[in-house]
User: Which sequence fits this backbone?
């Protein structure tokens, strides 16, 4: 049996092991985040590189203006009756799985006169935003100040399935699609 010269040493072993693990992690951080040694000084971490400083904020994307522009463009195109179903599927979260639903959603005389005007975009995370919009049929605003959400999926801001389901519910569909 192993006996330590210091009878209390075994009590501090877990704390010492945790401290060693934490030190190892801290020493590895500069390599992981891309820090480099200043002017060739061996082993000393330098300031973070520019890529480390360019992170998305907790409540929005890295470039909110570009994201907002894409959201408005995609939201408008999704609700445009002239946009083909295949293109609408590219603008809907999980749209490739919902083409049949989109075909049904686009059918009818009222759908052919539908348009939207985005009035506000509020980011709730780097990959999600709330969209406020006016839904119009013909020239009349039928749902002013409506709310919906977008999701950043595959590099594209897309209308969320949740938003589409809310509109299907408003339409009075007797049997909502299974995704809803």
Assistant:
């Amino acid at each position: 049996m192993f006996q330590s010269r210091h009878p209390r040493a075994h009590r501090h072993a877990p704390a010492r092991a945790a401290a060693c693990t934490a030190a190892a992690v801290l020493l590895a951080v500069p390599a992981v985040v891309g820090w480099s040694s200043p002017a060739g000084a061996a082993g000393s971490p330098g300031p973070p590189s520019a890529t480390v400083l360019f992170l998305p904020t907790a409540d929005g994307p890295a470039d909110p203006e570009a994201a907002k522009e894409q959201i408005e463009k995609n939201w408008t195109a999704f609700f445009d009756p002239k946009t083909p179903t295949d293109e609408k599927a590219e603008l809907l979260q999980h749209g490739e799985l919902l083409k049949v639903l989109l075909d049904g959603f686009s059918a009818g005389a009222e759908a052919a006169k539908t348009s939207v005007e985005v009035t506000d975009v509020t980011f709730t995370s780097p990959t999600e935003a709330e969209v406020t919009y006016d839904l119009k049929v013909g020239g009349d605003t039928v749902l002013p100040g409506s709310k919906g959400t977008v999701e950043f999926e595959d590099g594209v801001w897309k209308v969320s399935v949740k938003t589409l389901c809310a509109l299907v519910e408003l339409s009075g569909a007797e049997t909502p699609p299974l995704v809803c």
Remarks:
- Strands lie at 114-125, 128-137, 140-153, 156-159.
- Helices lie at 13-33, 50-53, 64-79, 85-90, 99-106, 161-170.
